[in-house]
């Protein structure tokens, strides 16, 4: 069972969003919702409209029509800052981190804790280290030394630090656009475990991925986009990974792969 906001409404809900780029319909009447403690996977082929949808939810693009509700209240997200202030954080693949800077400096980038007053104000590095270590530990990442450069972390750990940072600074909804696409199997597993951890903390997660093997283990529900249209939202309890792949239009591809595999290996 998933928790709800005090109002019982989803943390974020999109109703009938439509977005044009010139004459291209990137999204047509698309709806979705995410509750606290729920992972919603957004699936679909290249160009299906996934990034456009999350850019609308994170205040980058205004929709041409449709409505966004946060905690059940209609809102206008005029900018990414607007979305952040309402607790909606988006973690992009490039993560906006500085590899040579320490983990804790990156964690606090733009929000550094200071000690002293007026002209004597200095960055409180010890405090930054301590808070970062505690915040990461709460999310299940045990890093002994947060003064090491972020560049020394693995790709999966870096993604996890970026997600932990969003949650520490008040995100209730974390949107992840293809966080595992550039990662190897083990690295992707680090991020997926981390997403499961965020769910335990009642965060709502929107996970965009092409990879059903990544989506299925962590997703509670799956929304499928096809050329700008939502072709369905499914509960995990109601389908198998193969059925999900079929809904994604992968059925034909699967049959083709199976057919190819059955062919004898051509003689040299
Ligand atoms: N800024 C833009 N200007 C013009 N067209 C755009 C813009 N952003 C997206 N589009 C178009 O909108 C459609 C949806 O693109 P979008 O990036 O949302 O797809 P996606 O599902 O994220 O694809 P991918 O899996 O490749 O990331 C595409 O036809 C794309 O070319
Ligand atoms: Mg995209």
Structure notes:
This protein has 268 residues and is of the alpha/beta class. The protein has nine helices and twelve strands. Bound molecules: adenosine-5'-triphosphate (ATP) and magnesium ion (MG). Residues 21, 24, 26, 44, 46-52 line the site of adenosine-5'-triphosphate.
CATH class of the domain at 12-95 and 169-261 reads Alpha Beta
- Please, what is the CATH homologous superfamily of the domain at 12-95 and 169-261? P-loop containing nucleotide triphosphate hydrolases
Q: Kindly estimate the percentage of residues that lie in beta strands according to DSSP.
A: 15-25%
Judging by the overall fold, what is the CATH architecture of the domain at 12-95 and 169-261? 3-Layer(aba) Sandwich
Let me know the number of strands: 12
Mean pLDDT: 85
- Output the structural class: alpha/beta
Q: Low-confidence segments, ≥5 residues, pLDDT <50? A: none
How many separate helices?
9
Might you state the CATH topology name of the domain at 12-95 and 169-261? Answer: Rossmann fold
What's the layout of helices and strands?
Blueprint lengths: L11 E10 L2 E11 L4 E5 L6 H8 L7 E6 L2 E3 L4 H6 L2 E4 L11 H5 L6 E2 L6 E2 L1 H14 L16 H14 L4 E5 L7 H16 L3 E5 L3 H7 L2 E6 L2 E7 L5 H7 L3 H12 L6
Parallel strand pairs: 3-10, 3-11, 6-9, 9-10
Antiparallel strand pairs: 1-2, 1-4, 4-5, 7-8, 11-12
Helix pairs in contact: 5-6
Bound molecules: adenosine-5'-triphosphate and magnesium ion.
